[in-house]
Design the sequence.
């Protein structure tokens, strides 16, 4: 199940004068693949926090959030392809999509951005505290944590 669709990405890019069609560069088929790639990264981060993926359609608020970030990340990728080698920097809108997505993914990976409607199937993963070993006290090896 995809969170975003080509139409979601198209609506973002239309505001920049970029069209997505069966014959554009990239094509609708390629944009569909880009969406799948971005959503694989999102799902990997969600799994890292213990969520079962894909997130169920019944988790309406979560799906709405994932749709937003999937569409934004894909739109940034498409913009990069359309303007490869011709733009020295992204327009403000594209930079906002990129930084917004990257910041959210970082918060998600750190466990600072839990989903609203879904509960992790596995809790307490993501952080493992490991003790350290101290050597050289003259009395042998000491272990502390």
Sequence:
């Amino acid at each position: 199940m995809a969170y975003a669709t080509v139409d979601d990405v198209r609506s973002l890019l239309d505001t920049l004068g970029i069209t997505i069609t069966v014959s554009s560069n990239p094509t609708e088929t390629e944009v569909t693949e880009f969406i799948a790639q971005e959503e694989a990264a999102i799902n990997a981060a969600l799994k890292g926090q213990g969520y079962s993926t894909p997130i169920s359609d019944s988790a309406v608020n979560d799906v709405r959030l994932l749709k937003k970030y999937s569409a934004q990340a894909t739109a940034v990728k498409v913009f990069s392809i359309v303007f490869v080698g011709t733009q020295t920097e992204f327009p403000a809108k594209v930079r906002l999509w990129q930084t917004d997505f990257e910041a959210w993914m970082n918060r998600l990976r750190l466990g600072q951005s839990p989903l609203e409607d879904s509960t992790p199937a596995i809790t307490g993963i993501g952080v493992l505290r490991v003790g350290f070993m101290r050597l050289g006290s003259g009395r042998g090896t000491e272990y502390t944590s």
